[in-house]
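Workshop exercise sheet. Pairs work together: one partner reads the sequence aloud, the other fills in the structure field after running the prediction. Swap roles for the next sheet.
Pair: D.N. / O.F.
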Amino acid sequence: MARLDELLSDYGSHHRTRGNLVCHAFGITLILYGVVSFLCLIPIPVGRWTGAEVAIVALVLFYLRLNAALALTMLAELTLFDLLARAVDDWRIGAVAFVLGWVFQAVGHARFEKNKPAFFKNLVHLFVGPVFLWNELLRLRPVARP
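Structure field:
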């Protein structure tokens, strides 16, 4: 838990304002959907699997090393995005979601937080952001903010 708490605390130090958190809730959600929709374009010669399912399994395994409850929330969210991307079946919608997601991120940091995104400091924060939002909602781990 110490590693997760350290990551959440560091990420939280870049995300202190409510406006930025709201922007990130929309932005991260759209970015994740966009990435999953892009990865659905990569066929895997096993059943009906795509690159999305391979990436989801790898990411959930990463999250399991940090916290099982947060990993399960990510599994549910990413599975929903995978099903949605398959149903929509249009990478262009995923591309629009991806770009809009980054716009929300930029607005959050420029308008509300007035700082650089945390991943500029540590690329692992690209993966911490989604679990940080779930943790904000579910309060599974304490987040110390300076």
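Discussion prompt: The two ends are 19 Å apart (CA to CA). What would you look at next?
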